[in-house]
Amino acid sequence: MEAIGEIWDIYRTCWNETSSVQRAEKLQKILTDDFEYKDPNFEVKGYIQLSDYMKQFQEEFEGASFVTTDINIHHNRCLVNWNMINDNNEVLSNGTSFVLYENNKLKQITGFFKEN
Q1: What residues make up the domain containing 16?
Q2: Within 10 Å of residue 116's Cβ, how many Cβ atoms?
Q3: Is 97 helix (H, G, I), strand (E, B) or coil?
Q4: Where are the alpha helices (DSSP H) in the chain?
Q5: pLDDT of 115 above 50
Q6: Which of 17, 70, 74, 105 has a CB 3.0–4.6 Å from the CB of 23, allowing a cystine?
Q7: Domain holding 32: CATH number?
Q8: Would you put residue 104 in left (φ > 0), alpha (ψ -120 to 50) or beta?
């Protein structure tokens, strides 16, 4: 499997992958079987629930995507800073994700950002 930074990039791009099938296939390859995701608004388990949440995100924030601004990696953990941007590359929001990974797959992600 790719380095964790490359895996994070695959995960990040899944947030704006419109094909449910392709998104789910990508997520299944980079997430552990017991994957968990939490943010201030939602909590999901497994790649199917995460893919469904990503679809809801796309419907609510049409055209939005994420860019990584900084990533720190050590001891099977990552701290990732990111911006959510619109089609004009304007920053809509920013946040941080704490990531735990195992065997080069994402195991847990906890996202932190200001709620609207």
Answers
A1: 4-113
A2: 7
A3: strand
A4: 4-14, 20-30, 46-60
A5: yes
A6: 17
A7: 3.10.450.50
A8: left
Cα–Cα distances in angstroms (integers) from residue 92 to residues 7, 62, 75, 95, in the given order? 24, 12, 31, 11
- How many domains is the chain built from? 1
Do residues 91 and 105 lie in contact, with contact meaning Cβ atoms separated by under 8 Å?
no
State how far the Cα of 108 lies from the Cα of 45, in Å rounded to an integer.
9
pLDDT, one tens digit per residue, over 2-54 is 588 899 999 999 999 999 999 999 999 999 999 999 999 999 999 999 999 99
Length of the chain: 116
Q: Which residues of 88-112 are buried (b: 16+ CB within 10 A; e: fewer)?
A: eeeeeeebebebbbeeebbbbbebe
Q: How far apart are CA 89 and CA 83, in angstroms?
A: 10
